[in-house]
Amino acid sequence: MLTKDRAVCLRCVDYSETSQVVTLWAEQAGKLAAIAKGSRRPKSAFDGPVEIFSFGSIVYQPARGGQLGTLTEFQQQPLFRGIRSSLYGLQCGLCAAELVEALTIPADPNPSLFESLIQFLTDLQSSAKPDDQLALLILFQLRLLQEIGLLPILQQCANCSNPYRGNWRTIFFAPDANGLVCPDCEAAYHDKFVLSRPATDALADLHRLRDSSHSARKEIEKFLLDHFTRLIHRPLKTASAILTRTS
Predict the structure, then answer these.
(1) Radius of gyration, alpha carbons of the chain
(2) Which domains does the chain have, with CATH numbers?
(3) pTM of the prediction?
(4) How far is residue 239 from each of residues 16, 136, 159, 174, 234, measured CA to CA in Å?
(5) What is the pLDDT of residues 177-218, one digit of tens each?
């Protein structure tokens, strides 16, 4: 049965001279992979080849028996073409797409995450400064972790629930605890690393991220990329580009 939805393309690979295999993040269906037969032909039902960040209404045949679904229509809207006007903004968008693909499972709908991704891409292409684009990426990454139930504990000690305070003599993050650990608890964790006070303050209260320094934002992003590496058991392809100089 043919199904209608709205979707944004997370990944696309040429399948033949005329077709593509695409990974889409759809509003009602969640993540789906489908073959777009004939999408690379000059005249097709796809308004041209499907590209990453292509967005619009789709019609598709859901996958069956482990086979790919079939994308039959894609009414593409030129909504996110502006992302390519900034190299660093493009890298931030590619990072977000890679994370959504890596951290979600097929046919697991999450309309809230769909709207968050659309809003992130919208804000990203209207932001001209790399440092602001980095802040948008950080906020989206934290929202993604929240939506999939893996948001680290950043306002209190993950072990004893002692609220984070600026007078902690050293601030540790313990991956095994998925959160901050206070000075009284940190000795119980061998796998841990230090976070600076400015970075921790911004993570504990995201309103402070807007006023945080460039160095604090870079530290937060490195922390998040390391955290994602642990979650997906491989480095992100976009990690090195994201950590390049942004000011």
Answers:
(1) 20
(2) 3-77 (2.40.50.140), 82-152+176-242 (1.20.1440)
(3) 0.94
(4) 30, 16, 30, 21, 11
(5) 999 999 999 999 999 999 999 999 999 999 999 899 999 999
